Amino acid sequence: MNKITLYGFAISLYTGRARSYLIKAGLPYNEIPATSAHFFENVLPVAGPRTSYPTIETEEGDVIRDGAAIIEHYEAKNGRQFLPTTPKQKILSLLFDVIGAEGLLRPAMHYRWGYPEENQDFLKYHFECLLPDDREGGESTDDAMQRMRNACQAFGAAPDTVDVVEGLYMELLETLAAHFSASPYLFGGRPSIGDFGMIGPFFAHLGRDPKPLSLMQKKAFQLFRWVERMNRADADIGEFDCRDESYLLNDEIPITLIHLLKQLAVDFVPETEAASRCINRWLGANKDLQPETPILRGVGMCEFVLRGKTISALAQPYRFYLLKRVQDAFNTLSERHQDEVRRLLEQCEMLAVLDITIDREIVRRNNREVWL
Fold first, then answer.
1. Which of 7, 255, 287, 372 is most buried by a 10 A CB count?
2. Distance of alpha carbon 20 from its chain centroid, rounded?
3. SS3 letters for the chain?
C-alpha cells in the first residue's frame, strides 16, 4: 500500500493540524520537509502560491494543499468519522476548528517571537533545517526569522498589547485545563474536527516552543496531556475512569466547554466582527475583482477593543471561508435544533458567529481559495 506523503515542518502550526488527523485516522504517511526538488518542480505548481504546507500527495498521487482540505478529503472518503452527528456538538466542533486555525494566532505568534532569550536557539535550529544555507539566492535563516518576528504585529501582538494578550492567554490555559481534567477530548473520548483545529496552535507553537511549553506544563498540564494525546494513534485516555472512545451521549455539552467558549469569545467575536467590516470595505473598493481570483492572506488591518486596549490585526478572508462551514451546517438543521444551538451559543456568548458574514463568498478551486 502506498503511503501518503505529508510535506510540512515540526514548527508549522498548520502542519500540526493535518499530521494529527492522519495519526488519529490511522492513515499511513511519511512526513518530509517541503524543500526537495521534487516538491518545487512537481508539487508546488499544483499546490498553489499560498502557504505551501501542509501539502500532501495522496496514495493515488493527487496533490492537496491546506489542512482543512486534507481533512475534508479523507473525511468525505471515510464517512466523516471525526465530525459529531448531533446538532450542538457538530456546530461547536466546526466552530472550534475556526477558532484553532484562525482565532489563536495572536498568542501563538506572541509566545513564539516575544521571548527570544528562551526560544531563539530552538527556533534557529528549526529554521536552519527549513532553510538550508546551501540554497542559491534564497532567504537567509536570520532574515526569515526576523520576517516572522515582524509579522507578530500583523496579528495584533505588539509591544503595547502584551499585557492583554498574555492576560487572556493565562485565563485560557486555566479554562482549557479545567475541561481536559474532566474530558480526554473536546466532546468526550474521541477527537473531533474541532480538536484538530485547536491542536495547530497548541502543538507547533504553544506546546513545543520552550517558553509557552514551560507555561503549559506548569499551569495547564491537563492541556499538555491533550497535546500529547492528539499526537498518538491510540486514544491515550488511561487516566480517565471512562474508557468509552465515543462522543458524549445525548448531545451533551459539558459546563467546562461552555466556560471555554465564553473565554474564547472575549477575543474571537470582536476580532471577527472587525475583520468582516474591514474585508467588506475592501470588497466595496474592489468591485471589479474577477471571480476565481485567489484570496489574499490579508486585505488590511482591522481594529477592535479588548479590555480597554485597541488591537490592530490583519483582516484575513480565510477566517470567513472556515466560518461559513459553521453557518452552512447550522442552516441544514431543523428549526428545533437551530433553536437549541442558538440558545447554546447565546449562553457561550458566541451567538454572533451565525450572522457575521462577508459580502462575497469564498470557494475552493484547484487547491486555491478564490472569490466567487
1. 7
2. 12
3. CCCEEEECCCCCHHHHHHHHHHHHCCCCEEEECCCCHHHHHHHHHHHCCCCCCCEEECCCCCEEECHHHHHHHHHHHCCCCCCCCCHHHHHHHHHHHHHHHHHCHHHHHHHHHCCHHHHHHHHHHHHHHHCCCCCCCCCCHHHHHHHHHHHHHHHCCCHHHHHHHHHHHHHHHHHHHHHHHHCCECCECCCCHHHHHHHHHHHHHCCCCHHHHHHHHHHCHHHHHHHHHCCCCCCCCCCCCCCCCCECHHHCCCHHHHHHHHHHHHHHHHHHHHHHHHHHHHHHHCCCCCCCCECCCCCCEEEEEECCEEEEEECCCHHHHHHHHHHHHHHCCCHHHHHHHHHHHHHCCCHHHHCCCCCCCEEEECCEEEEC
Q: What is the pLDDT of residues 281-322, one digit of tens each?
A: 999 999 999 999 999 999 999 999 999 999 999 999 999 999
User: In whole angstroms, what is the distance from residue 252 CA to residue 91 CA?
Assistant: 13
pLDDT for the residue numbered 53: 81
- Summarize pLDDT for 86-102 with one digit per residue, the tens: 999 999 999 999 999 99
Q: Where are the domains of the chain?
A: 4-77, 87-110+161-371
pLDDT exceeding 70 applies to what percent of the chain?
A: 97
Residue 131 has pLDDT above 80, yes or no: no
- Reported as a single tens digit per residue, the pLDDT across 223-268 is 999 999 999 999 999 999 877 899 999 999 999 999 999 999 999 9
